[in-house]
Amino acid sequence: MMGNYDERFAEVKERLARKQHLEAVMPELQNQYSDVLATVTELREQRTAEQKDVDRLEHGSLVAFFLNVVGKKEEKLAKEQREAYQAAVKCDAAEKELFDIESRLNRAGEELASLQNCEKEYEILLQEKREDIVRRGLPAVEEILKTEQSLFEAEKQTREIKEAIAAGEKAKELAKAAHENLDSADSWSTWDLFGGGLLADMAKHEKIDEAQALIEELQVQLRKFKTELTDVRIEADIKIDISEMLKFADYFFDGFFADYEVKHRIEDAIGQVEDTQEKIEGLLKCLGRLEAENENEAGHCREMLRRLITSAEV
To answer: Using the 8-state DSSP alphabet, how is residue 241 labeled?
Structure first.
């Protein structure tokens, strides 16, 4: 706009906006890391304990000997193996989550360290701009600068909203794919109940496995969505607690490793996915409204700046 340093000024404003974003999301990432680390620690202990129960039955113990005598060893072993597998799956999913959060936290920390001086640079260039406006004899110096700051804030918030929307849309896609796999599993489960045989049973569990993998991805993506929402202003009365959705994967992982009541658990999981989809949709609608409001505000600021500068130069 004014002065040959405007490109530098715009670049520093971008870096300052990025620093403010990182400072807003770092505490959220640190909280997520602490929470998931505690979960991983607990699940690792559970996984080890469950595997010990399996090993004790497989490699001989007084309990194993007694169960073998009464003819219940295989039944007990199958139960312990299911529980060990369930604990291992939950632990693996939590470890993936932890790795993702740790990676994002490290990247954010490194980037934040590289931006430590941008406030000082911004203040220096802001003063240069103020002096340039004065030299040009333009009136309303502070009004121009104030309007530019309002434009900067509106554009910054719009970018944050767009990033949150992108994260939410990705979560929405994963939830939709999980829903489709669960619907398919439910259909195969119905056929299995009416004598579908090995084919139906294998197809059912294949779809359950695919849904499980998608739920793991969804869990990670919901945390990313939660992080992006940290820097977005959402009115308290319409804000949805993402933590409610994050509980879904724990429920899901508790369900599908027994051979009984599989159809009932699939139907329950479908209900959980639908609830999650509804909440994601609600947040995306809210974000869409905020995006429109901020774009209108940015347009108003641009028009005001144009009038201020044009009228001053006449």
So the answer is: -
